[in-house]
Each structure stands twice: as structure tokens, then as C-alpha cells.
Amino acid sequence: MPTRTVYRVHEKGDGVSNCRIETETLGPPAEGEVQVRLLWSALNYKDALCATGHPGVARQLPIIPGIDGIGEVVQSSSANWRPGQHVLVGNPRFGTEADGGFTTLANLPAEWLWPVPAGLTPRESAILGTAGFTAAQSVQALLDAGVRPESGPVVVTGATGGVGVMAVMILSRLGYVVTAISGKPERKDWLRGLGASAVAGRESVNDTSDRPLLSARWAGAVDTTGGNLLGTILRGTQPGGCVTACGLVAGSELPVSVYPFILRGVRLQGIDSGNVSAATRQQIWSLLAGDWKPDRLNDVATSVSLDGLAASIRSILAGQVAGRVVVDLSDNVG
Question: CA 69, 73, 74: angle at the middle one, nearest 5?
């Protein structure tokens, strides 16, 4: 039987002290499964929480984290997949309720797999990953709400994070005037180079007054933070505007009245990247591989091996990561 190398969380712990790199054998795929040699994964904030054994993310222990996975089919019991095909994993259980992508080899349900779209390499697919998919969903939601480049400026919070940086790149590629909000002032020139028209600190969108409405500044927004930042943006969105929400690093509470909704017709659109239809998943990945593909994907990604994951997890939990960290699993093949 083939061997694999995995990064496994064993129990809830302090930081990554509960994680170990292990080598083990893996049996053949069961009926309806496909054996995939993982080539790339990516480190998301959600994966870092899983590595601590966070009960809201790690639904079982022990578990292999990694909600992103891109690899090559080794063997298959499904007629839909053949050896040599490059595939990506798309299922909300991957890396939370079931073992995820921080492994060199996995037996996966055939229905969890999607072909890597033409126009993307496996590494590019990993750089985009769940972050790029979520950002693209957010942009699509703005378009569906009628927010277009000519509608006015848009704002992206958490702009140096995975979803944020992808949103900045996609929106600017489509012609939007984008203000990037970030708590990392040293990344101002970097964000401008990726397409942001302006870069501002969090204080510019963190109004703590009790005013129910603020000056209408934004036609739309991609918010990755939640909390008072999201409430401020909603109060400052133009009539008929749309704000998408996909994160809560600034808090899960939403301090806002109904006024933006009933006096300006502002739309708040939640974004869930896990429970989407097959048609939507295919549509979004086709856009990411085509007209929406960011020009400078490689400029926003750093590669690490499984051996380097622990340090990267500590960095992302401390808010010290900008852009994307992708996990090169080809160096860890057993």
C-alpha cells in the first residue's frame, strides 16, 4: 500500500502544540471514491483555527486540516474520473468534518471533485482556492445587485487577507474604483500595485457614533471582517447599494439600525462558499479561470511545505500574513 505524509491535529490545544506530521499507509479507494495525489493546498484562517482544535471548525478530532486541495487522480472507482486528471476539492466537510488537504494522498468521494479549469495551473488554483472563490462570489453578488463600475467607488475591508486581496484584484480588473481597507500600513504600496485606487486604515470605516446613517460614500462593499466595520459601511452605503459579508474577525455582532435598509434600500448579502450548487461552483471557477483571473496571482502567494506549516499558522493567527500561503505537497510525497 502507498504511504502518505499528513499534518494532523490530535486534540484541542495551545497554538499548534497539538499538531504532528505523520507518515502512514493508505488503502485503495472504496466504491465511489477516488484516490488523489495532493499537489497543493492553501492555508486559510479557518485552517489555522482548525489546527488549534477550535470546536466551531474542527468538528472531529483527530483531523487533517485544509479546506483547499488540488491534486492528480491516482486511481478511481468512479467512471467520472481517470488517472492523471488534475482536480480540485469542493465540499464544505473537507478539512472540518472530514480530513482535509494537508496530506500528500487521500481517498475522496467522487462527487467532491471538480476538474481544474483550463486556464489555471494547479498552483494557481491553490492560490485562488476558497479565498478566491469567496471573493468572486462577492463580486458576482455586487453585479447581481446592479452595482457596476459606473455606479461609484467600492470598498474592501481586510484587504491584505486572502479574500480581501482577491476581491481587490478582481474588482480592479473589472474596472471598479476600489478603496482597500487594511490594518497594515506597510502594505499600502503593495495594495496599490495590485489595483487599489486608494488605501486607508481601519479607522476610516470604523465610526463609533450612534448616528443611524452616515454620508453615502460607497456604491458597494466586500466586507471580510464583520462587527462595527460592517455596521459603519452599511450606514455609509449609497442608496440602492450592496454590501457583501463573509467574515467575522472584527466581531460577530452587527451594530446597525434598520435605517440603511428602509431609507436607502441598501442590500446586505451574505456569502457562503460551502453550500453552493454545482452550477454556481462551475460558473465561478470558469470566471476565475477566464475574464476574472487576477493578473498577479504569483505576487500574492508564498509557498511552504508541511514542515513550514506550524510557523505559518502562528503567523496567520497573529495577523501577520498578507496575501496567500500555499502548501507545496510535492516536497512531502511519501
Answer: 125
